[in-house]
Every structure is written in C-alpha cells, then in structure tokens.
Amino acid sequence: MNDLPDPSADLVWALRREGYEVKGSDIIPLGSAAALLPELKVALESKLVRAGLTTALAHLDEATDTLAQGQYGACAAAVRSFLQDVFDQWALRMNPSAGRRNPGGDRRRWLEKQGFLPPKEAALVKAFFEWLHQAGPHPGKPSESEAKAKFHIALHADKDKVSVL
C-alpha cells in the first residue's frame, strides 16, 4: 500500500493558485478572465506589502489558497476579511481616532462621510459586502463560480484602494 501523497495533486493545486489548469497535456489559463489574474494579484500583493497591510495580505493569500483547493466557503470568508482589513486600515490611516469606531460598516460609513468614498462608490461597496455576508458570516457553501466572482471583484476593487494608503 502506498500512503504517500499524490504529487500531481500538489501540481494541480499550485497551478490553480496561479490561475492555470491542466487540460490533457496542456497547461492553460482558468478561463479568459483568469488570464490576467496572476498579474493583477502580484501587483496588488506588492501594493499591500508597500502599504504595510500584512493582515490583508494574509487574508488574500488565504482566499487564493482556499479557492484553489475548492474550499469556496472559506474563500468567500477570506475575501470578506481581506476587504474589511483594507477599508479598516484606510479609515485608521486617514484618522487614527477612527479606531474608536467599530470595524467594518462604521469605518466605511466614516470614509464616505469624510468624502474618501463618493456616495455611488460607497453604495457599491456596501452592496458588495452585503453579497459577501448574505446570510451572516457562515451562509453555507457558495458555488465555485460565486466564489471566483467574489474573489475577482475584490481584487479589482482593492487594486485602486490600496494605492491611496
């Protein structure tokens, strides 16, 4: 009996984490939108490191890993935590006294009230967080396509927000 892990499973996981998959004997991007994902993610990770947002970076890495492993509920939770930390840190950096506000919606509302988030953008962010939080923090297992959509939207939304920090 062979109880050793299958090395091909590690390869498949590593490829999915970077936005690729194995089809027959070819390695191809995970769909058309995924072709740009590794480049976008690397740029965002670099911005997070420069901004000192290590907690957000850890949540982004967790979202990436859990998405690649097919753990879609965990991915959605990590995406929510990633975004939450970026907005919380933004509020704290703009005004350290924002730390007295509850993390999350209170700090995002403060960003809107101060003009850092225009009203339409704030409404979009609020709607996205509501989608991330549909039935509370544990809404059940989302589908693969839903988890990917949340992940991709979060990457695109935060690429500009991290630049202001």
Radius of gyration: 17 Å
What would you call the quaternary organization? single chain
Which regions have little confidence, pLDDT < 50, spanning 5+ residues? none
What is the total tally of β strands? Answer: 2
% residues in beta strands: under 5%
Q: Classify the secondary structure makeup into a structural class.
A: mainly alpha
Strand line-up in the sheet with most strands: 1-2
Helix content: 55-70%
Number of helices: 7
What would the average pLDDT be, to the nearest integer?
Answer: 79
Order of helices and strands: HEEHHHHHH
Explain what the structure shows:
With 165 residues, the chain is mainly α. It has 7 helices and 2 strands; from the N terminus they run H-E-E-H-H-H-H-H-H. Strands 1-2 form a two-stranded antiparallel sheet. Strand 1 and strand 2 (26-29) form a beta hairpin. Helix 4 (72-94) packs parallel to helix 7 (144-161). The chain is elongated, with a radius of gyration of 17 Å. The model has no long low-confidence stretch (mean pLDDT 79).
Give a nutshell description of this structure.
The protein is mostly helical. The chain has helices at 7-17, 37-51, 54-68, 72-94, 105-113, 119-132, 144-161, and strands at residues 20-23, 26-29.
List keywords for this structure.
about 160 residues; mainly alpha; two-stranded antiparallel sheet; 7 helices; about 5% strand; elongated
Topology of this structure?
Blueprint: H1 7-17, E1 20-23, E2 26-29, H2 37-51, H3 54-68, H4 72-94, H5 105-113, H6 119-132, H7 144-161
Antiparallel strand pairs: 1-2
Helix pairs in contact: 1-3, 2-3, 2-7, 3-4, 4-5, 4-7
